[in-house]
């Protein structure tokens, strides 16, 4: 018998009609003889709404209580889906985080699933469908925890692993993973197969289909994933191990994000330890620094250091730099209207000239590159935000993805 994990995102369970539709999808799979564990997100927009309520009470709303609040979104859809399945004359039952239990470790709102008890649910799968809320667990102390925004994907992957499932299907509101954002670039194509590494890069770099840490877990444990639409019957995108993919193109997808900011420290002392002194307090404040560039100093005494961060961290970062007594510099410059555009492809490893082609393409569009970073299978540039779509279109075309 095949054991399937089916995860349904927020839009897929966004209304009562949609929950009923999801129940029908599950019925089909169940009637075909599969064992089913369904994982659900909260109704689309619900988590944001709950966060807003908490902020109306206090900007720094208590973290423990925030997790209690946010976990309710998934519990609502969980019960509604189980009820809809029962209405279809199927046997179904919800299992909440503390009932299983799903054990987590780490801070509130940012915990990680470390284990769960599978025996009871495994037994139940012989008679019915288990429905489990995504995005949550309980700590060793027994407190309700949540596992980070978009965390239902991580729940689905953890369950696929612990239950040793045959497949893990991520149902969403698009047909799969696209070569770039199909809402903005209509020539974007659905990707049939993609490797974990590429998917990880794409989802970290701004493609919003799946939560990056869930992809990472799937990669570590080699759990094959499929991203597909709740609203069509079309085949989705299969995500698996690189070996089984045939690369005829150097680039698989173009991702972008418009939520970056760039900071330059001008005239920083050029001596050992300075970079560590700059970045240590940022690290302690959990500010994620993305790209770093240091210019060669012309006078051998001072240099300029540029780095990028998430835009939401900008004011905090400026504050920390100003209060940092360990560093000396002449001035701070910043630009909060930048975007990051990236090309991703496992085929890049074996194709020479990809870097040149990207830079030439951007140059032809008169787009100035402000910062560059590379890894084996991706190349990212920071550019002015207003050039984003132009850059994405150009790269999509020159790398033959149209
Ligand atoms: N409801 C949570 C969120 O909006 C988790 C999820 O949807 O995966 O972040
Ligand atoms: Mg989601």
List the defining traits of the structure above:
single chain; 402 residues; alpha/beta; Carbamate kinase; VC0802-like; eight-stranded mixed β-sheet; six-stranded antiparallel β-sheet; 11 helices; 32% helix; globular; binds aspartic acid; binds magnesium ion
Q: How does this structure look, described?
A:
The protein has 402 residues and is α/β, with parallel strands linked by helices. The protein has two domains: 3-173, 3-Layer(aba) Sandwich (Carbamate kinase), CATH 3.40.1160.10; 254-398, VC0802-like (2-Layer Sandwich), CATH 3.30.2130.10. 32% of the residues lie in helices and 27% in strands. The chain has an eight-stranded mixed β-sheet with strand order 3-6-2-1-9-11-12-10, with helices on both faces. The protein has a six-stranded antiparallel β-sheet with strand order 14-15-13-16-18-17. The chain has a two-stranded antiparallel sheet with strand order 4-5. A hairpin with a 2-residue loop joins strand 17 (371-375) and strand 18 (378-384). The radius of gyration is 23 Å and the shape is globular. The mean pLDDT is 94. Magnesium ion binds at residues 9-10, 41, 150, 152. Residues 10, 41-42, 47, 73, 134-135, 149-152 line the site of aspartic acid.
């Amino acid at each position: 018998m095949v054991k399937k994990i089916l995860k349904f995102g927020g839009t897929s369970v966004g209304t009562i009609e949609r929950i009923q539709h999801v129940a029908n999808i599950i019925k089909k799979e169940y009637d075909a003889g599969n064992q089913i564990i369904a994982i659900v997100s909260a109704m689309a927009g619900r988590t944001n709404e709950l966060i807003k309520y908490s902020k109306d009470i206090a900007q720094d709303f208590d973290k423990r209580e925030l997790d209690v609040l946010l976990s309710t979104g998934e519990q609502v859809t969980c019960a509604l889906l189980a009820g809809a399945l029962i209405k279809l004359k199927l046997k179904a039952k919800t299992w909440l985080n503390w009932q299983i239990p799903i054990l987590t470790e780490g801070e509130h709102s940012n915990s990680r699933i470390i284990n769960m008890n599978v025996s009871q649910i495994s037994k139940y799968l012989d008679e019915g469908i288990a429905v489990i809320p995504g995005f949550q667990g309980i700590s060793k102390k027994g407190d309700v925890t949540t596992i980070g925004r978009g965390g239902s994907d991580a729940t689905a992957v953890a369950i696929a692993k612990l239950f040793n499932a045959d497949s893990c299907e991520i149902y969403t509101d698009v047909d799969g993973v696209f070569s770039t954002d199909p809402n903005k670039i209509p020539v974007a194509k659905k990707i049939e197969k993609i490797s974990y590494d590429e998917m990880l890069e794409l989802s970290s770099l701004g493609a919003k289909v799946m939560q990056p840490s869930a992809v990472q877990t799937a990669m570590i444990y080699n759990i094959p994933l499929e991203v597909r639409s709740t609203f069509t019957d079309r085949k989705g995108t299969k995500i698996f191990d690189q070996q089984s993919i045939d690369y005829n193109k150097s680039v698989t997808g173009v991702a972008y994000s418009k939520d970056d900011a760039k900071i330059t420290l001008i005239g920083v002392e050029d001596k050992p330890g300075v970079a560590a002194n700059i970045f240590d307090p940022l690290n302690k404040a959990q500010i994620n620094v993305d790209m770093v560039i240091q210019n060669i100093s012309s006078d051998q005494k001072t240099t300029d250091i540029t780095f990028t961060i998430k835009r939401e961290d900008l004011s905090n970062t400026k504050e920390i730099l100003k209060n940092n007594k360990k560093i000396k510099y002449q001035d701070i410059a910043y630009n909060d209207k930048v975007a990051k555009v990236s090309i991703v492809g496992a085929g890049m490893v074996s194709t020479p000239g990809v870097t040149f082609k990207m830079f030439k393409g951007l140059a032809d569009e008169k787009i100035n590159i402000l910062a560059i970073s590379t890894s084996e299978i991706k190349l990212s540039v920071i550019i002015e935000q207003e050039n984003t779509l132009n850059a994405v279109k150009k790269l999509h075309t020159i790398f033959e993805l149209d």
